[in-house]
Amino acid sequence: MTRRVLLLVLCLVISGCAGTQFDVTTDTNQDDRTEGTTSESIREPTKGTMGAVADRSNPWGESVVTVAINASSNPSHEYADDVRQALDFWEKNSEQYAGYDIEYELTPDANDPDLVVNFVENVESCPRVKHAAGCAPYITNAAQISRPMRVDIDDSFSSDSTVLILKHELGHTLGLNHSSAPQSIMAAEAALSTRPFTNASDRDLPWADADFTVYLGQTGDREDVRAQVQHALDYYARGASGTVPSNVSFSFTETRANADIVVTFPDELSCNPGSSGSCGGVRGTDPDQDGALEEYQKMTISISGIDTDAIGWYTGYWLGYGFGLEESELASPFRDASERERRSEWWK
Q1: Helix residue ranges, H only, the chain
Q2: Predicted pLDDT at 41
Q3: Phi, psi of 180 (to 5 degrees)
Q4: What confidence category does residue 49 fall into, taking pLDDT thresholds of 50, 70 and 90?
Q5: Is the pLDDT reported for residue 8 higher than 70?
Q6: Alpha-carbon distance 257 to 213, whole Å?
Q7: 143 in helix, strand or coil?
Q8: Using CA atoms, how far apart are residues 250 and 236, in angstroms rounded to an integer?
Q9: pLDDT, average across residues 20-31
């Protein structure tokens, strides 16, 4: 299995972030299912990190900055450790990067705090910024402070990513912008991951919904080919012997870009050039960056050099993988089928 991963990219603006997108493509070869791996890490800044270093007086004054936490959107989750890590970072590094010392007192339930960290389902406090991961005021002088100041943080990210977002947003409250050092914290882009999600293959339906659109690529003998593909779709719409949910439905579309499932008939297979057979692949999202897809968004089935009366079987075989099934979990017609069985009326 080869995996091409475009990471979740967070485009942070002065008081927030925008532009998050996942796009993970997994191509699976029927005869070669060895998984590839990808990894990302977030590095702590070191001396000499690129970026401008500020030199200004402390707009918060000389007193300790009291920080409270509001986690009303998810009261069962404990955020204090993540906030403490971000505060500790700036206590150790604010003089180097902001030009002055800062000292925080974390009191989650403080009645009269200087700063409140709000964990919310959706960050909506940044004007003209959609899909923000965080939002904080950009503070460069005391006149901008009206206690308590507010920092909003999206509560859907993993602990490591939450700490990074907190460091970035707290950096803005210290007067740092996106050209400031340390760039590993204040840069306009960063790779983030969400809290763990259930993998698509472990869910009853690994797609967002059970209504699928299907695009049929160009091929000779088109009507017979379409009838074969329809047999496979009808079989799964009936539940595929109990292997998929009973509410699955399919309809054909003439627009490939709009299709959930694309069936193509290339002259040569990309997964196994020079041979006949089939390839199947799914594209989806990996928000928690665990290397496995959490939701499928598109499936491509490529069939080449196969007799028309077997096309339905090959389509059905790959549809099983499109529903997150392992080889042993496929409906019986797709397990250890002979060439003759593949050309039979297996759907009856």
Answers
A1: 80-97, 159-173, 183-186, 222-237, 311-322, 339-342
A2: 26
A3: -85, 155
A4: low
A5: no
A6: 10
A7: helix
A8: 9
A9: 28
